[in-house]
């Protein structure tokens, strides 16, 4: 969104950018509860599975969890490139932990175990490994995660795994070859699509964050955003931003349903 648009609606900044700090993320009541469950799982040094359709806010949920965890007690490690084999997966995990990945896959894995153990025993800092887009993991890599999740004969886990992915990830974990991993994950966070009221509250909250005046979006425009975005916050932001641009092009101060539909046609969602 251009500075011209910010000026047109008299905003302090762009309302739907991704630069929003973790602590300022807006969550509806169901997602607030989901964050509480994730924080509870990690605090108890457990693993969790976060599943949901594209655009429903899985990463937003994980970011909100991260904001709740003290860096003095938890060490967050985020892995996004999961389409690699087991050896390369552990190499990038080593780099994320500040280790030099040397030797065989077994040696790299052993180094990760030692680092996780030392983090807890020496500093009382619990590592939290967030694996994004986990449904894309190759079978060999996904099938080896149960070893990473199983320290000291499953009696004292030295890190928490947070697997984030589409619903098919859970389907894969139900298969016999991955059951050993699934049985070690006590917390399932299932993110459901938002309601029309949630969408309206989300758009309003993002606008309020940048000092917008009330009523920039007409009520029927907010309903249209919800319908066209397929109940996901990511789509909401893109459509809302585009609709504001359409209104600006017509020198209007309020975004109506027509502007939303025009904006929608200019997105990949159409």
CATH third-tier fold name of the largest domain: Rossmann fold
Structural domains: how many: 2
Give the averaged pLDDT, no decimals: 90
Strand content: 5-15%
The CATH class of the largest domain is identified as Alpha Beta
Summary of the model, kept short:
The protein has two domains: 3-23 and 194-265, Helicase, Ruva Protein, domain 3; 29-190, P-loop containing nucleotide triphosphate hydrolases (Rossmann fold), CATH 3.40.50.300.
Q: Can you characterise this structure?
A:
The chain is an alpha/beta fold. It has 2 domains: 3-23 and 194-265, Helicase, Ruva Protein, domain 3, CATH 1.10.8.60; 29-190, P-loop containing nucleotide triphosphate hydrolases (Rossmann fold), CATH 3.40.50.300. The protein has 13 helices and 5 strands. The chain has a 5-stranded parallel sheet, sandwiched between helices. Helix 4 (86-96) runs parallel beside helix 5 (105-123) and helix 12 (233-249) packs across helix 13. The longest helix is centred in the middle third of the chain and has 19 residues, at 105-123.
What order do the helices and strands come in, and which of them pair?
Elements: H1 3-8, H2 29-43, E1 48-51, H3 58-68, E2 74-79, H4 86-96, H5 105-123, E3 126-131, H6 139-142, H7 145-148, E4 160-165, H8 167-173, H9 179-182, E5 187-190, H10 196-209, H11 219-228, H12 233-249, H13 257-265
Parallel strand pairs: 1-4, 1-5, 2-3, 3-4
Name its key features:
alpha/beta, Rossmann fold, 5-stranded parallel sheet, Helicase, Ruva Protein, domain 3, 2 domains, elongated
């Amino acid at each position: 969104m251009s500075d011209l648009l910010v000026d047109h609606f008299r905003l302090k900044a762009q309302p739907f950018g991704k630069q929003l700090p973790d602590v300022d993320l807006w969550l509806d009541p169901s997602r607030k509860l989901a964050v509480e469950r994730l924080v509870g799982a990690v605090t108890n040094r457990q693993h969790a599975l976060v599943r949901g359709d594209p655009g429903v806010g899985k990463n937003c949920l994980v970011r909100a969890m991260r904001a709740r965890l003290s860096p003095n007690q938890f060490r967050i490690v985020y892995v996004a490139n999961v389409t690699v084999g087991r050896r390369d997966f552990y190499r990038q995990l080593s780099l994320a932990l500040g280790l030099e990945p040397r030797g065989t896959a077994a040696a790299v894995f052993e180094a990760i175990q030692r680092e996780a153990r030392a983090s807890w025993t020496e500093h009382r800092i619990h590592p939290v490994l967030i694996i994004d887009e986990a449904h894309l993991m190759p079978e060999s890599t996904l099938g080896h995660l149960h070893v990473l999740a199983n320290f000291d004969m499953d009696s004292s886990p030295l890190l928490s795994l947070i697997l984030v992915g589409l619903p098919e990830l859970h389907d894969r974990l139900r298969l016999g070859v991955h059951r050993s991993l699934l049985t070690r994950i006590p917390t399932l966070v299932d993110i459901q699509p938002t309601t029309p009221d949630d969408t309206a509250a989300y758009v309003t909250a993002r606008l309020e964050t940048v000092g917008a005046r009330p009523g920039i979006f007409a009520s029927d425009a907010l309903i249209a955003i919800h319908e066209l975005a397929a109940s996901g916050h990511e789509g909401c932001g893109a459509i809302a931003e585009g609709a504001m641009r359409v209104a600006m092009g017509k020198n209007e101060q309020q975004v109506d349903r027509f502007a939303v539909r025009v904006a929608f046609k200019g997105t990949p969602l159409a």
